[in-house]
Amino acid sequence: MTRLRRRLSAAAFAICLPASLPTQAQAQDGADAALCRMAGPPAPRIEACTRLLRPDMGRDAEVDALTLRGSAHLDAGELDRAIADFDRALTIDPRFAPAYAARSSVHALRDEHDRAIADLDRAIRLDPGRAAVFYNRGVSEERLGRLDRAFADYGEAIRLDPRYVRALSNRGNIALQRDDLVRALADFEAALRVDPGHVPAVYNRGVVRARQGQPAAALADFDAALRLDPRHRQALVNRGIMRFELGDPEAALADFDAAAALAPASVIVLQNRALAREWLGRLDEALADYDAVLRLEPRNLQALHGRALSRALSGELAGAAEDADQVLALMPDSPAGFQLRGLVRLLGGACALAREDYDRAIALHPPYWQALSGRAAARRRLGDAQGAGADAALAERIVAEQGNALARLFLARLGRALATGRPCR
Question: Is the pLDDT of residue 139 over 90?
Fold first, then answer.
């Protein structure tokens, strides 16, 4: 009923810079040389590098100073000035690998990833031992959807620097996309051994554990991610899903409300909040969320299914029937669609037609305990006590085997709804 959502973590570009200015530049002005190459606010670095750029400086010193000033412009967000400095440095020395690597970051920030990769290819040919260059090329390859190449580049970055946290995390993300959960978990845990506070690795380890059927362990990771970043919307959503699956829809709803405050028009957030509200019996609020989703995505099957169920449980059988029919029109072999239409028909007193729908749902998905429970109710109303008992017993066994904490709530609500439903006709 729920679907775990995840996202790919953002990867910042590592900028490759020369380690120091040559002795000639330091002799001209040691203080400016030190300031030009140091980390810190970009404006003083730009001024220091500019003072170093004098006509009498040597060729190598000029290339270094231009590359460092370009990098300071890059840190300041002045991309045109940054690329002008990198271009000028490469005009002077076309074999200066750090300038190619730094210029690639400008291209990447402009979403010109093919150009970024071209510069990184040149940097690697000139200097193949820099882990950050392989990492940056992996990021651009990944943005272009070339996951095999990105995976290989992250692997090379890790070979050169086994403690490269972002490379480990990003390679883990690709493994996660490939559903290689063992590889993904190994990479995320390796990243966290180096940096226990790396939010993407903490969060994505939770995604892996959720997919492995470990909701409690996943919940712990989402908790940890939110301690590090309380506004991590995906962690809020996925923590809510884990809380829901562990049988705490109230806590789940609190997480979905917090996520909705950050992203009021998010389909994922609205869908999950509607589901929690529905399970808690807050049907008017659930319907409002499903309506909002369907305004954004009119063919959203999960929202159509959820709205139909909320409408049915609210007694709006005509609207519920329309939604159920639309689900089946969009997906004719949907077990959930037949189960849903069966419920609507059962509540409306069309017990024989309801049983037919439940039969089709169960044929498409035999261990479907919701459909078995509904068919048990239909059979009971049609006078088939033996068949009703068999279906109810099988549904109970499936629920017990799954350890589904919310199934009892669903069955109780189904019973209450049927008690007020129309008699069979």
Answer: yes
* pTM, full prediction: 0.83
- Measured CA to CA, the distance from residue 395 to residue 376 in angstroms comes to 9
Separation of alpha carbons 200 and 210, rounded Å: 15
The alpha carbon of residue 304 and the mean position of all alpha carbons in its chain are separated, in whole angstroms, by 23
Cα–Cα distance for residue pair 188/312, rounded to 1 Å: 44
CA atoms of 244 and 240, how far apart (whole Å):
6
Amino acid at 168: L
Q: Is 164 helix (H, G, I), strand (E, B) or coil?
A: coil
Rounded Cα distance between 179 and 147, Å, is 13
Alpha helices in 144-197 (DSSP H): 147-160, 165-177, 181-194
Structure confidence at residue 17 (pLDDT): 52
Nearest Cα neighbor of 371 from 351, 345, 395 is 395
The per-residue DSSP string of 31-94 comes to HHHHHHHS-S-HHHHHHHHHHH--TTS-HHHHHHHHHHHHHHHHHTT-HHHHHHHHHHHHHH-T
Q: Which of 422, 418, 370 is nearest to 391 (CA)?
A: 370
The pair phi, psi for residue 58, each rounded to 5°, is: -75, 165
CA-CA distances (angstroms) from residue 196 to 188, 225, 227? 10, 10, 12
- Helix (H/G/I), strand (E/B), else coil: 196: coil
* Placement of tokens 């559903």 in the chain: 179
| Structure confidence by residue, pLDDT tens digits, 17-42 | 554 555 444 455 688 889 998 889 99
**What confidence tens digit (pLDDT) does each residue in 274-321 have?**
999 998 989 999 999 999 999 999 999 999 999 999 999 899 999 999
Contact in structure between 267 and 250 (CB atoms under 8 Å):
no
Report DSSP letters for 285-346, one per residue.
Answer: HHHHHHHHHHHH-TT-HHHHHHHHHHHHHHT-HHHHHHHHHHHHHH-TT-HHHHHHHHHHHH
Distances (CA, A) of 26 to 16, 32, 73, 93: 21, 8, 21, 20
> What distance in Å separates the CA atoms of residue 201 and residue 203, rounded to the nearest whole number?
5
Q: Which tokens is 36 given?
A: 């030009």
CA angle in degrees (0–180, nearest 5) for 296-301-307: 80
